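Re-running the complex after MR caught last week's input typo. The corrected sequence lines follow. Everything else is unchanged.
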Amino acid sequence: GAGVSQSPSNKVTEKGKDVELRCDPISGHTALYWYRQSLGQGLEFLIYFQGNSAPDKSGLPSDRFSAERTGGSVSTLTIQRTQQEDSAVYLCASSPRGAHGYTFGSGTRLTVV
Amino acid sequence: SQKIEQNSEALNIQEGKTATLTCNYTNYSPAYLQWYRQDPGRGPVFLLLIRENEKEKRKERLKVTFDTTLKQSLFHITASQPADSATYLCALDGPGGSYIPTFGRGTSLIVHP
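Corrected-run output:
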């Protein structure tokens, strides 16, 4: 596609429910990143995928968070048993291999009530 | 630990003036430094990349400098316009081929007509 697509754009969920956030990167981009941005805060790294290599999960804040990337393209970030502190904007970015400029999607605003 | 500092106070300037934003970092030796623009409700948009062996980079009305001795980057917008009003983020990645950028919290720029 023309850009990085994320869905849904907004998600309101009840505390304790599981949520899935989707990212569709730019076609041909081998690198895919998930970040989250809380109100007034910087971007917090969550997870990084590069081609078929094992993902770098060093930023995941707890074992309630997981992500997968199927066929080197679409990625899904799953948050289990959501907590209020999970409320944030979840951003996905992609880039070609070896590049150091990243294209972001518009994000998913997650609100846990 | 790695730390990136951007002025948390908004920068207010008059249209036509040059805006200068600062990014300082500590405990870090990045190979690449990037600047992004972020508008409310949107993901960051990549603007410029500068490498550690480059002192200055220009693109249209934008200029970035990178001083690895001072551990500082300056981002300039000349002939600023109200449409330049946004939050500007700096990001660092590398060395050692690391492709996981660390972002500053950003500085809000407000250009008054």
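None of the earlier attempt is carried over here. Residues 4 and 58 of chain B are 22 Å apart (CA to CA). The two ends of chain B are 41 Å apart (CA to CA).
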